[in-house]
Write a structure and sequence with these properties.
about 325 residues, alpha+beta, Killer Toxin P4, Chain A, 3 domains, nine-stranded antiparallel β-sheet, five-stranded antiparallel β-sheet, about 20% helix, signal
Amino acid sequence: MGSHKFAACLIFYHLTQSVWTSPQETFAPTPTVEAQAIKLQELGIQNLDNVDWKKFWKHVPARLPDFEVLCGFGEGDPKKVPRTVAQENVKTFCGDKKGKGVTIGHPLDGLFDFDDNNTLNITFRQSPDCGEFNDLVLDEGDCVANLNGPIDECDENSSDIPGGTAKDGCFIYILHPQNKPAPTQEPRPSPTPSPTPEPPQGDPKSLQIIYETFISTGAEEWQAWTFFEGEQGTAVDPCAENHIKQDKTAPGATGYDTPFIQGEWNLRFAGYAEDCIFQGIGRRGENGDVGWLHCPERRAIMCLEDPKRGGGKDAWKNCEKGEWSDDRIPMAYCDWS
């Protein structure tokens, strides 16, 4: 008998509360016996002895008497969202999430950007007070009604609202305007290396550099770096005139000792346009290197001191003609590899 009294009270409570759908409405008058019978049939209850009361309690009314709204999120979180924007976002969220389940620790969330820097975060979660229920679902009508609590009751005279939290029985609804999350930096794919262009075809080449000193009877005098393109293993004729470049600003020699070449020169070499670069370092390196040859899409080529450079007087070749003196000596070579 006691259980029947409890059941009757519970049904009566449910019937009187389920008609309350907004915070402004008051409780409806007690339904008639006929209305209560119809409501019981709608709920599928034919016999009070067979009621699963725990399941029955999951039919939470739209707004229970303990419904409350908390406006905003503290002074340190002053973000606001336009009221009309929030209303539209609530309709979208509740429509998209209707019928979906929620449990403790697994809320339903939605993010709605309302300008370039801000987003509205809407959350529907289960209250810890109802942790024993594992299959609660979102009702679209209840969702809209409850989320409109912060919209209607917070900053009523302003077009922008701070959002807030609505608590209703087993559910918590959150309407939170906040900064838009920074976009996640996706890792950039490693660029596919371009295939190395084929080098110019033909026999391996050798860049050979001659030091030249010129004196004429008219008191004209200059020194030059003269660049030749030759074949590997074959010394060019220092007196030849088919050079690919000549620079008459070389420093003077000290006796028969020539200076080391220093500077950069663009060269037309081995079939390339004038975009190969010879770079002299002005000294002999630890590996006998005196410079480098750089050509597009090719590794740098080490240029070595020519053995004749340190050969003294006998290493020089006199290319004089007529009334002028023109002495030359091999300085360096860069073998194409």
